[in-house]
Design goal:
The chain has 70 residues and is mainly α. Helix 1 runs antiparallel to helix 3. Helix content is 69%, strand content 6%. The radius of gyration is 15 Å and the shape is elongated. It has a two-stranded antiparallel sheet with strand order 1-2. The protein has 3 helices and 2 strands, in the order H-H-E-E-H. This is DUF3311 domain-containing protein.
Length: 70
């Protein structure tokens, strides 16, 4: 794979990870407002976990072309 692919995948992972720890948790560390009945901090973590999963799934699909076998 190209160097750009690895750089973008690493940046995506780092951004999602930093959004869930410092400084991202400082932004979202509050109970109000509630989103979908969840406190905002719990929604914040759930959102970033979903974005991380989707990004890594897309990276896998790009790298392996959608094939499940190696």
């Amino acid at each position: 794979m190209t160097k750009t692919y690895h750089l973008l995948t690493g940046l995506h992972f780092a951004l999602c990870t930093l959004a869930m720890i410092w400084p991202g948790a400082l932004i979202a560390n509050r109970i109000e407002p509630t989103v979908l009945g969840l406190p905002f901090l719990f929604f914040w973590y759930t959102l970033w976990m979903m974005l991380l999963f989707i990004g890594m799934w897309v990276a896998f699909a790009i790298r392996h072309g959608g094939d499940r076998h190696e």
